[in-house]
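Possible race condition, two jobs.
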Amino acid sequence: MQLIPLDSHGAHADDRAAMDALSSVIGSVGDPAFGNSALQALNRWMPLCWWSVYTLYAAAPPVLHAHSSVGDAPRGTSESWRVYRSSLYRRDGSFSAARQAVATGAPALVHWMADELPPEHREAIYSRNGLRERLSIVAAASGGGLLAINLYRHERQAPLGTQALQAAAGLAQPLVACVERHITLRARDGGKLAGLQELTQREREVCERLLKGWTHDGIAADLGLTPATVRTYRDRAFQRIGVRSRHELFARFSQAGA
């Protein structure tokens, strides 16, 4: 495990790839497809396979804000989150050093190789999906929480070297700012779309994208599902909230700012 100090100067202005990636991430802030779009942008700067963004709490289950896979990486982010949130987070000590570091107010980076993690954690998520390592950008969150932006590499990818870790340190603070802004905007949208709160996470994700005008194929690609599965979630959601068509969905939520 490495606890990595941040570059106090932030991302270097002459790092064109980092700036291009950051610009794309900024452009997707607040969008339902943020998880997929932001990872695609970051992957053009630094090859990754997964990312996940969540807030950890001392006395409550973690809250997921975004997750996605890219390229031919295993599409196991949803299942891994289910496993982690069901109980594994209670025994996860991999953020302990970072929690102390962010008490000063600045974000911190913590880098774990899969073989450094406890067997239960490693086997349930890393070995099952062929993950080599995780680089986490960690920042203090409201309510005593800990915001974790987790970047993963697969066994087929080269390990993160010193140069890559330094580059990530340089981009950490603006990336945290983007994620925090995204969380704020999505929370506002959640209030406007209060009628969707009774849905499961997947049903809500499908409806949010339908309200943005997405096709079933587009939603399937973004969420790592088949179009048939998307339609199943759509039908279940429509039944729960009492609408019969996409037109009725728009009619109900268009005035709520969807």
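Job #2 (started ~2 s after job #1):
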Amino acid sequence: MRNTCILVLAATLAAAPACDLDVGDLNNPGIDQLEDNPTPSGVSSACTGLLIGTRRNHAANNGYVVQLGILGREAYDFDTADPRFFTELLQAKLNAGSPFGGNFWQLPYSNIRLANTILKAVEKVSEFSDTDKAGIRGFSKSIMALDLLEVINTRDDIGAVIDTDKDIHDLGAIATKTEVLAKIASLLDEGATDLAGGGDAFVFQLSSGFADFDTPETFRKFNRALRARVAAYQKDYATALTALGESFITDTAVNQAALDVGVYYSYSTASGDATNGMVNPNIFAHPSLATDAMMNGTTKDLRFTRKVETTDSQGGAGVMSDLAFTLYKSPDSPVALIRNEELLLLRAEAKFFTSDVPGAVADLNIVRTVSGGLQPIAGTPAEAAFVTDLLYEREFSLLMEGHRWIDWRRFGKLDSLPLDMPTGDNPQHVRNKRYPIPQAECNARTGEPQCELDSI
């Protein structure tokens, strides 16, 4: 465990300046000190490292948003230096031994191990007040939940490990998806309770992406927003509505700025920091976005025109695109973690599936008319029509934020995603529905049945 945590702590703290964070010497604290003789500054620095650790690989060229965007037919990556953006993500089963199919496992679990270390360390620091400790616990549990959500979002029904507070050589069992989501929900609920007793301020600094959510009270609203998302994934819509009521959702005087209120991962070009790797000339929008986008008279959905532009055509492996993303304009562009726009769409979903169809349509229409500039939906749609409407709004409202592949999978619609090369001389395309457990993990789990499951 110590070797893993050392890597995480050093790597994450090394990136601290970019997130507007100020931390001390990377050798203070070492992981041994954090475990055995923690200090206030050491625990605070580790919390900073935890925040930076959860951001790692999210907006990389081969990161969470790009890979899920390709799988969900939001994007292509025409990187001629690495054909795996096509040969693996689009043309074949995901390879458990590659940086593509084996992704989104080691890094989040390393960060979870650091969080477990913090949770034990904070109780040993007598200089912290009870409210200080509660704030640290609430923050750490929320980040653990976020990291575990990344793992299960990518592994889906293969499952994931939830018993993580173990020696690194003592492998926890692979739990079911239902059990993993329940664990995430529990972490968020425990975190919310801790945050409620966390006082007026954290003892560490958060990044600029948490500008309006950087106290225990306001961070708790972020925690509740995540809880609503998880409840929707669980189809526990009553809980989703309760969590939304405690989040930062607003439907008053809504304009685009109000829809964009939320929590973001921040990036910068400062020395040692991570940049937004999606600012990349090889990343193109999937052509189906142009045909999917609805019209209001002669005006196309404003979300499409705000986020996508026509450019010189590029292609590879038999497919082409002349659509470039404009969401991320520079290496320091932030990436949304969760926004009010998503919360309104979650509330629409939750209202519909708790029999408040008029309320669901009203929430869809707030997003549809304000963000999309489209005419409102009329009437009271049946379930199939509502799901179609919901997925359309989520497709364009949350474009390239890491959602479409997950959304279409959870509503049983993956087979409806475009299949660009169903036949022909080029390798045919497939629809991957989940990531396999990484090969290195399976090598350590002789006879593990979940390791027999592939991505199809």
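The radius of gyration is 22 Å.
Logs attached separately.
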